Predict the 3D structure of the following.
Amino acid sequence: MEKRRLGRLEHQSSVLIYGAAALGDVSQDMADRSIQEALDGGINHFDVAADYGEAELRLGPRMPEIRDRIFLATKTGRRDQESAWTEINRSLERMRTDRVDLLQLHAIGDSAELDLATGPGGALEAAIRAQEAGLVGAIGITGHGHDAPATHLEALRRHPFATVLTPLNPVLWRDDSYRADYEALVEEVRRQDVGLMTIKTVSRRNWPEGADQSYATWYEPYDAQDRVTAAVSWVLSHEEVTGIPTPGDVRLLGMLLKAEQDRIPPTEAEQRLSTDDLYASPFLSMPF
């Protein structure tokens, strides 16, 4: 699997990042099989969060065996210093490790959330404390929504975050305003040498009302190999992107692994996806 430099952290991260949200509601046996599938496929960067159900607990039993083989990232969704500090330490306990390589402020997609997390007494202070204590190697920021790139640009003006995790896919790119915000973020990311990861690669649309939600993802994902390959190929054609987390359902991992190996030119990828009249932003309606 291709690896790309994770900004100034210098880690050579696999371009597919294991999205451990997929482990939030599965058995330990299924989790173990999925983790092994990722490792066998060449993934060396794992991304989890305290908010992902039982995911951290599912990673824990494998940690003594795999900790020195992976770049480990988690997230806190808390906004104040005290509860974020408690959550960071709880995450370490749940994953049976004494340190994560990256701690991300989670789900910060607008200015109000950013103000809470980065203001006096906010979660950023807990992250810095954890970094100074050696519990955390670096600090990053993540977020969903149409305002995420602009919000993350402002975040980089407030604090030298080492990484950013922001949305990108072809349907978002077609929006002139979104694309302008994303390109402004990329300019600052390059200036500060930040590791830029992107999410919602294989999102197709929001689940239609009354639909049988056949995957654990909160959005309807692409699940046909040709469309998955197109989506992965298009995003990874952006050389500023260091990696993309795999979607939050263990059944989709194999298709992402195949897509990374069988990439097609971005123009062909865009053409494949342009034939889907239902392709839409997942942020038209969010369950959180």
About this structure: The radius of gyration is 18 Å. DSSP finds twelve helices and twelve strands in the chain. The longest helix spans residues 176-192. The domain at 3-284 is CATH 3.20.20.100 (TIM Barrel).
